[in-house]
Amino acid sequence: METYARSTLRARRAPEGAERRRNGPVADVQRSAALNDPRAADEQERPALRIAILDRDSGFLMVLAKRMERYGWTHQVLPARVSAKTLASIDVDTLIVDLASLGARRWTWLGRLTRERPDLAVIVCTGSSTVAERVCGLRLGADDWLNKPCHPEELIARVEAVTFHRRRPESRSLEPVSFGEVEVRPDQFQAFVHGRSLNLTRREYQLIELLSRADGEVLPRETIYECLWGAPMIRNDRSVDVFVHKLRRKLEQASPDWKYIHTQFGVGYQLTAEPLDAPVHELSLSASRLVDEALAA
């Protein structure tokens, strides 16, 4: 009888003990761990995105669609024949594109799209590719490149990285910046000389805007890389130098009487507008004409 009473008492106290376990210190620790779990926070705080997808792999599209629906993202699958001009007019945040589906026109298509929509995040997700192809795509303005087969969660993470970490600063000044004969217009994602566009690619525009807002300070190459690519610069990477060279060439062609980008060897680059000395400039033009004549001969 006494044993039965003790067991009954324990049974009656079990709910109370269970309640203490649900609300006691252990539960507090468990709830705290859940709140601090980056995956749980990620599920709650992931903002909504509008995604365009250009891909013909139905299995890949099905898996990716389920992930996006779970995160509350809207997406639309585009036909392979869609033109860059048409896509530029669609209100989306990010494009995931398999360049193989575009055939031979893929490089022209990508270059035109990034010129017309420099605010659009572009992620190439395609089959096996060469280094030359990846370099070409990134230099044309793609933000990231991922080879298939890939895990959909990695692709989702890359979408977030290029869209939020670099594309959506909390406050972005739209005031134009002028130096020498150049005017940078953030509202148009372009730079102009005497009203004529320099026709900068997305990356070239980001570079000139970054340099122009440094107020003449020298920006280290590592800083430029992190601002433009959103990741630490890999040792011996020459991407910054390549884009500085391309931007400098366009500036020289559009505004030949000024020098804008200055190299600080071993450190980085500086943007200050300096008029060229006339005799030196004329000598440079004469030398260029002699070289052209020699080549023509």
What does this structure look like?
With 297 residues, the chain is α/β, with parallel strands linked by helices. It folds into 2 domains: 120 residues, Response regulator (Rossmann fold, 3-Layer(aba) Sandwich), CATH 3.40.50; 119 residues, Arc Repressor Mutant, subunit A, CATH 1.10.10.10. It has 12 helices and 12 strands. It has a 5-stranded parallel beta sheet, with helices on both faces. The radius of gyration is 28 Å and the shape is elongated. The N terminus is likely disordered.
Shape: elongated
Q: Average pLDDT, to the nearest integer? A: 75
What is the oligomer described by this structure? single chain
CATH architecture of the largest domain: 3-Layer(aba) Sandwich
What is the topological layout?
Layout: H1 2-23, H2 25-36, H3 38-45, E1 50-54, H4 58-70, E2 74-77, H5 84-88, E3 94-97, H6 106-116, E4 121-126, H7 131-139, E5 144-147, H8 152-166, E6 177-179, E7 182-185, E8 190-193, E9 196-197, H9 202-212, E10 219-220, H10 221-229, H11 239-254, E11 258-264, E12 268-275, H12 278-296
Parallel strand pairs: 1-2, 1-3, 3-4, 4-5
Antiparallel strand pairs: 6-7, 7-8, 8-9, 10-12, 11-12
In short:
The protein has helices spanning 2-23, 25-36, 38-45, 58-70, 84-88, 106-116, 131-139, 152-166, 202-212, 221-229, 239-254, 278-296; strands spanning 50-54, 74-77, 94-97, 121-126, 144-147, 177-179, 182-185, 190-193, 196-197, 219-220, 258-264, 268-275. With 297 residues, it is an alpha/beta fold.
